[in-house]
Amino acid sequence: MNEPADNRNELDAAARAELAALGDLSALKPAQRAKIAQRPMPSQDPKARIRNMREVALGYTEPMARLEAQRCLQCPTKPCTAGCPVSIDIPRFIQAIAEGDDRRAIGVIKEASLLPSVCGRVCPQERQCMKGCTVGKINKDVQKSVAIGRLERYVADLERERGDAAPPAVAPATGKRVAVVGAGPASLAFACDVRRAGHDVTIFEALHKGGGVLSYGIPEFRLPKAIVQREIEGLQAMGVEVRTDFIVGRSRPLAKLLSEDGYDAAFVGSGAGLPRFMGIPGENLIGVFSANEYLTRSNLMKAFDEEHADTPFYHAKKVAVLGGGNVAMDAARTALRLGAEKVMLVYRRTEAEMPARVEEVAHAKEEGVEFRLLCNPTRILGDENDVVTGMEVLRYELGEPDASGRRSPVPVAGSEHVVDVDCVIVAIGNASNPLIPQTTSEIEVDRKGHIVVDANHETTMRNVFAGGDIVLGAATVILAMGEGRAAARACNARLAGTL
C-alpha cells in the first residue's frame, strides 16, 4: 500500500516529541515560549498535488496546534487583535487551545467572525494579525509570529467535523425586511448580523451558487467549496433566504425592491468583479483570458472535472500569467492542474514587491511555476487564425523610490524579446461591479466606480448601505467582512430608530 504523499505524520510525530520534551507547559516562561519554533503546515507533496484539486494545506493535528498555541505570550495590549479587521480576541482563543478546550476557542472566534474556516485559510494574516505579534517582533520576522490563521482553521475544522455547530441566536421578529445584493463575504457577514437582530433577510445572488469570490475566485485546492457551502447553510439555518440566479439591476431594479416589494433597507455587496486588462495589442486573441473567467470556469463551473462537467476550458501547454497578487498565483497554479506543461508568472517588479501572500508564492514555486520578474508584456502575438502563439516582453529595472518609498519599474531600452506561449491570463486586478450604479441613479460613485458611503456605510440612497469590494476596491475577505459587520450595525440602528 502506498504511503500518503504528504508530511502530516512526520510533522505530527515531531510535535508530539517536542511537547513531551517541554514538560509542564503551564510552567513555561515567556522567554521559553518565544523560543519555540513555529509549526510548519502539513501539505501535499508538490509532485502529487499539481495533478489533483484537493486541498494543498492539510491543517494542524492536535499536538501541532497545542504546541503552536504555547508560543503565544498573552500580551495584555493584544496587538494581534488590533490588526484583525473584525477584532477577534486572539489571545483568548489561543489560550483556550493551549488548555485543550477547542470548543471554547471556536466560541471566542465566533463572537466576532462568521467564517473562521474560510478566514483561517485565505486571510493574509502576515499583513494583519501576525504583523503586530510580539513573538514575530522578538524573532525580527513576521513569518515567525504565532500562526494565528492556522490555529483558527484548526478549531473551526474540528467544529465542522464534529457537526455540532449551532447557528447564532436570533432575536424576536421585528417585522422589518432587508434585501442583500450579492452573496460574497461582506454580504454574508452583514446578513448574519442583521438576521441576529430579528429582521427578515433575503440575499439576491446573480450566480447559481452563493459565496462570491469564495466560490468563483479562490481555487478548490486553497478553499474547498464544501466549506463555503456549509457556511451558507449556517445562514439559512438562521432563517436567511438565499435567492440565486437573480440579478438585482436586471431581474429587478434595486429601487423597486424598496418601493414596491416591501423591503425596509438594503445592502449592496456586489464586489469588484470587473476584470482589468493591460490595453496592449493582442488582448483580443483566442487564448487570452481574464483571471476572473479562467478561475470561474474551473472553480464555480468545475471545468477541471471533464467527466462530470459540461464547462469547456482552454487546453494550453505554455501559459503566461500576468500579475503578482494572490489571484495571479491562483491562476498559475490552476493552469498546472489543468494540464499545462509550463507556467510562467510575469511581473514587472521583484518578488519583494509582490502583493501575494508569502505562503502562496512558496507553494507556486514548489509546484514549478517559473517566475519572470522585472518583465512586462508589450504585445501578444497570434497566428492567421487569431490564436495566441507568443508574447513580446520588455525587461525592467527598479528606479528611485517614490514618496511612499516604493521603487517604480523603469523599462530597459532594447530589451524586448519574445516568449513562446499559447495562453495568456491577465491577473492585474479588478474594478468595481458597475451594474448597481448604472441602474440606480440615486447611488453616487467615485471616479473609480466605487460606491460612495458615509461614516455609517450608508450610500447616497437612504436606507441603502454598502460595503466590501464595491466600496473599497479589491480587498481581502476579512476586510470585506469587517465592512459588512459595520454596515449591519448602522442598518440595525436605522431600523430600530436610533440612527
Describe, in short, the structure shown.
This protein is α/β, with parallel strands linked by helices and 499 residues long. Helices cover 35% and strands 15% of the residues.
Topology:
Blueprint: H1 8-22, H2 30-35, H3 46-49, H4 62-69, H5 79-82, H6 90-98, H7 102-110, H8 116-122, H9 134-138, H10 148-162, E1 177-181, H11 185-196, E2 200-204, H12 213-216, H13 225-238, E3 241-243, H14 254-259, E4 265-268, E5 274-275, E6 288-290, H15 291-299, E7 318-322, H16 326-337, E8 342-347, H17 358-366, E9 370-373, E10 375-382, E11 388-401, E12 407-411, E13 417-419, E14 423-426, E15 430-431, H18 435-439, E16 464-466, H19 469-472, H20 477-496
Parallel strand pairs: 1-2, 1-4, 2-3, 4-16, 6-14, 7-8, 7-14, 8-9
Antiparallel strand pairs: 5-15, 10-11, 11-12, 11-13
Detailed description of the structure:
The protein has 499 residues and is an alpha/beta fold. It has 3 domains: 8-162, Alpha-helical ferredoxin (Fumarate Reductase Iron-sulfur Protein, Chain B, domain 2, Orthogonal Bundle), CATH 1.10.1060.10; 177-273 and 432-496, FAD/NAD(P)-binding domain; 276-430, FAD/NAD(P)-binding domain (3-Layer(bba) Sandwich). The protein is built from 20 helices and 16 strands. The chain has helices at 8-22, 30-35, 46-49, 62-69, 79-82, 90-98, 102-110, 116-122, 134-138, 148-162, 185-196, 213-216, 225-238, 254-259, 291-299, 326-337, 358-366, 435-439, 469-472, 477-496; strands at residues 177-181, 200-204, 241-243, 265-268, 274-275, 288-290, 318-322, 342-347, 370-373, 375-382, 388-401, 407-411, 417-419, 423-426, 430-431, 464-466. α1 packs across α4, α6 crosses α10 and α8 packs antiparallel against α10. It is globular. The model has no long low-confidence stretch (mean pLDDT 93).
